[in-house]
């Protein structure tokens, strides 16, 4: 089975974790500091705060902004559930904005419509790796006095108007899950140019304590004070060492993804198969986390039929994502309305994620596109209508 995403691990990661395992520090050690410095440098940001996963990173960002009961945070309808859940963890209320039909990125016009006196922040999700329209989002955030957060879990390695992902919003959240642009197994981080936010997040990821284990070892003091209610959201040195190796390859990974995406685009445009890639905005470089196509219902392409056809051909395609408010916890338990984001609802019926990861070859792309060409569209279209 050709998976939709896959990590690339080489000898240098294996050697790096071996060095950590032989050292004194398996967690809260120097490998974490180094990874944070490497990530800040790679993203053109000032501070990076590592976390045990991307969801914890999002939660840390919400806590840094002091989101709490009564506060609304605008998030896109199409994203992984963790983006909205992080708002709920803080007792805040996620408000869903619709996405643009061609890119599936949060629609700045709909963001403005969803702003109320309770709105505190906007979370932009760089869906599939393509950065959102940060110029317009920043202008809206400034005009309404809101914080701008990037859920950049898809987009490490991308750029917007010459600026790197990680330096585009007030707080920029990353995930290092194996399918993401770089991996640490599980892992995450937030980058920010605010020393204040960074300090709050370091405290929050360590139980709300004023110092960590190594700081106390260095200072020779046993006492610590718990200042706030925090969590244990720490990344280990073993994971951080993998992360520093992976960051050195980020540019190569991104170029490889870009090249494979171009191969897909060429194959799909040569033969008008009815599988339409997402639009690319001109002023930005996608990190190409996902290659998403829309199965055009106008051409009688049924997404679920195409999904099953590809799986039968040993191609591990996927669907990213069902609108968050359609999940039973949001629709039934929390009672979210289902009709507030019509573009997202329509897109969900048509989207399909094709395999894309750095170790793929052009032959793999051709194999996927050949399978799409063999998809019996008319029958599927009829059976869908029936
Ligand atoms: C992967 C992902 C997350 C969560 O990251 P984890 O490391 O799996 O916790 C959050 N948001 C988006 C958009 C993601 O793709």
List the helices and strands and how they pair.
Elements lengths: L10 H11 L8 H14 L3 E5 L2 H11 L7 E5 L4 H9 L3 E5 L10 H7 L4 E7 L8 H11 L2 E5 L7 E2 L2 E2 L6 E5 L12 E5 L2 H10 L8 H7 L17 H12 L1 H21 L4 E3 L6 E2 L5 E5 L7 H10 L15 H6 L8 H7 L2 E4 L7 H12 L3 H9 L1
Parallel strand pairs: 2-3, 2-4, 4-5, 5-8
Antiparallel strand pairs: 1-9, 6-7, 6-11, 8-9, 10-12, 12-13
The span between the termini is 31 Å
Structural class: alpha/beta
State the total count of DSSP E strands.
13
State the strand order across the main sheet.
Answer: 1-9-8-5-4-2-3
Mean pLDDT: 95
Small molecules (ligands, ions, cofactors) in the structure: pyridoxal-5'-phosphate
Structure overview:
This protein has 386 residues and is α/β, with parallel strands linked by helices. It has 15 helices and 13 strands. The strands form 3 sheets. Strands 1-9-8-5-4-2-3 form a 7-stranded mixed beta sheet, with helices on both faces. Strands 7-6-11 form a 3-stranded antiparallel beta sheet, with no helix packed on it. A 3-stranded antiparallel beta sheet has the order 10-12-13, covered by helices on one side. Helix 1 (11-21) packs antiparallel against helix 9, helix 2 (30-43) runs parallel beside helix 9 (237-248) and helix 3 (54-64) packs across helix 7 (195-204). It is globular. It starts with 10 loop residues before the first helix and ends with a helix. The protein binds pyridoxal-5'-phosphate. Pyridoxal-5'-phosphate binds next to helix 3 and helix 4.
């Amino acid at each position: 089975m050709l998976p939709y995403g896959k990590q690339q691990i080489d000898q240098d990661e294996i050697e790096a974790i071996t060095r950590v395992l032989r050292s004194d520090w398996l967690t809260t050690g120097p490998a974490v500091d180094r990874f944070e410095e490497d990530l800040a440098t790679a993203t053109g940001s000032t501070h990076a705060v590592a976390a045990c996963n991307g969801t914890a990173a999002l939660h840390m960002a919400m806590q840094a902004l002091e989101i709490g009961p009564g506060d609304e945070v605008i998030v896109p309808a199409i994203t992984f559930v963790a983006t909205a859940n992080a708002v709920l963890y803080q007792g805040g209320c996620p408000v869903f904005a619709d996405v643009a039909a061609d890119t599936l990125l949060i629609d700045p016009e709909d963001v403005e419509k969803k702003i109320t006196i309770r709105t505190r922040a906007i979370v932009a999700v760089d869906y599939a790796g393509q950065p959102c329209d940060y110029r317009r989002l920043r202008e809206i955030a400034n005009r309404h006095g809101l914080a701008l957060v990037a859920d950049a879990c898809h987009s490490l390695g991308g750029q917007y108007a010459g600026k790197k992902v990680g330096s585009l919003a007030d707080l920029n959240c990353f995930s290092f899950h194996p399918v993401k642009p770089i991996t640490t197994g599980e892992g995450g981080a937030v980058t920010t140019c605010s020393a204040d936010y960074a300090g709050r997040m370091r405290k929050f990821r360590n139980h709300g304590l004023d110092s960590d284990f190594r700081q106390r070892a260095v200072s020779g003091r046993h006492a610590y004070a718990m200042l706030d209610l925090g969590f244990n959201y720490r990344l280990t040195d073993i994971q951080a060492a993998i992360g520093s190796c992976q960051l050195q390859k980020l540019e190569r990974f991104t170029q490889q993804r870009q090249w494979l995406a171009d191969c897909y685009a060429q194959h799909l445009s040569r033969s008008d198969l009815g599988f339409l890639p997402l639009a690319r905005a001109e002023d930005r470089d996608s990190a190409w986390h996902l290659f998403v196509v829309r199965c055009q219902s106008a051409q009688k392409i049924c997404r679920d039929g195409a999904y099953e056809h590809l799986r039968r051909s040993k191609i591990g395609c996927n669907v990213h994502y069902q609108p968050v408010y359609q999940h039973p916890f949001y629709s039934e338990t929390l009672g979210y309305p289902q009709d507030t984001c019509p573009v997202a609802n329509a897109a969900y019926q048509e989207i399909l994620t094709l395999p894309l990861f750095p170790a793929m070859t052009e032959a793999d792309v051709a194999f996927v596109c050949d399978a799409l060409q063999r998809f019996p569209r008319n029958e599927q279209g009829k059976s869908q209508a029936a």
